[in-house]
């Protein structure tokens, strides 16, 4: 089984920056995709960004140009650098691990990001 530990959430003013980290441990091998989803107040969970083992990434249109996802395969860690944050970026951010080899689809516990003056 894979476990995910997230860190880096918090309160930030509009226009500010935050960096989220998600470290995976356990049964990790082969090709996988890790990503960040978020759920705002009264909204459904949505994909923010994801990245494959080969560093192929994709982003929600709402965060393109402001957020950057990266990963360190040696550390099994994915990062989300968030800049020019807006109040609508507020929500609980969840890390996700998806393995093409094992079929594992694992979620982290979530970390709160609040963008407010």
Q: How is the secondary structure organized here?
A:
Elements: E1 2-7, E2 10-12, E3 18-26, E4 32-39, E5 46-52, E6 57-59, E7 67-72, E8 77-82, E9 91-99, E10 105-107, E11 111-115
What does this structure look like?
This protein has 117 residues and is mainly beta. It is 0% helix and 56% strand. The chain has no helices and 11 strands. It has strands spanning 2-7, 10-12, 18-26, 32-39, 46-52, 57-59, 67-72, 77-82, 91-99, 105-107, 111-115. Strands 2, 4, 5, 6, 9, 10 and 11 form a 7-stranded mixed beta sheet that branches. The termini are far apart.
Keywords:
single chain, 117 residues, four-stranded antiparallel sheet, 0% helix
Summarize the structure.
The protein has 117 residues and is mostly beta strands.
State the end-to-end CA separation. Answer: 40 Å
Sequence stretches where pLDDT stays below 50 over 5 or more residues: none
Mean pLDDT: 96
How many distinct beta strands?
Answer: 11
What is the helix fraction of residues, given as a range?
under 10%
From the alpha carbons, calculate the radius of gyration and give it in angstroms.
Answer: 14 Å
From the helix content, strand content and strand pairing, which structural class follows? Answer: mainly beta
Give the biggest beta sheet: 7 strands, mixed
Global shape: globular
Series of secondary-structure elements, N-terminal to C-terminal: EEEEEEEEEEE
Strand percentage lies at over 45%
């Amino acid at each position: 089984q894979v476990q995910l530990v997230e860190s880096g959430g918090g309160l930030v003013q509009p226009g500010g920056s935050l960096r989220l980290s998600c470290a995976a441990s356990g049964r990790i091998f082969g090709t996988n995709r890790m990503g960040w989803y978020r759920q705002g107040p009264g909204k459904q969970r949505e994909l923010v960004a994801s990245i494959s083992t080969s560093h192929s990434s994709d982003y929600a249109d709402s965060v393109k140009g402001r957020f950057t996802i990266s990963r360190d395969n040696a550390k099994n860690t994915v990062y989300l650098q968030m800049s020019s944050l807006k109040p609508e970026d507020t929500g609980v951010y969840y890390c996700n691990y998806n393995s093409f080899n094992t079929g594992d689809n694992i979620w982290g516990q979530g970390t709160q990001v609040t963008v407010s003056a």
